[in-house]
Design brief:
Layout: E1 26-29, E2 31-34, E3 45-49, E4 52-56, E5 66-67, E6 73-78, E7 98-105, E8 108-115, H1 119-125, H2 129-132, H3 136-150
Antiparallel strand pairs: 1-3, 2-8, 3-4, 4-5, 6-7, 7-8
Length: 154
Amino acid sequence: MQIRRGRRARSDDTVGVTPVVPDKEQNFRAWLAGDIPEHVHGYDRLVAGPGLLVATPDPAGRVARWPVPRTLAVERVRLPHRTDPQLPTGFKGMPADALVADCRDGEQRVTIVVDRQHMPWVLGALLPAAESEPSDAGAAEEDHAAGARDSLPE
């Protein structure tokens, strides 16, 4: 008689991802949810770079950039759950290899969903400034993003 042991359900679904600070800007599909300005209809891309993480609706990642708050702190990275909020209309489905970053900005909960290959860039872009080696281009981008923020509809 053979005894088969079933796979144990993991109580902790945290996925280990090593942050990578991109050496140049990287533009990719993403979905942000939570009570933060980045949750604007149509803002379905992120641009990550040294000291930079901005949301944008632009597939080229050049215009209407909205900076993700530098106060955003990642609590954990995990696999998607069936109980996660639904993706907004127009988001062409969750990537097959999606990962979810559960974050906080003060008391606000924020969820970032990206393809597994892009999560290291998200984590690297959210590192404290001393660890992410911000470039002059990042400072210029913040100025540009501040101007774009003023032109967005409420």
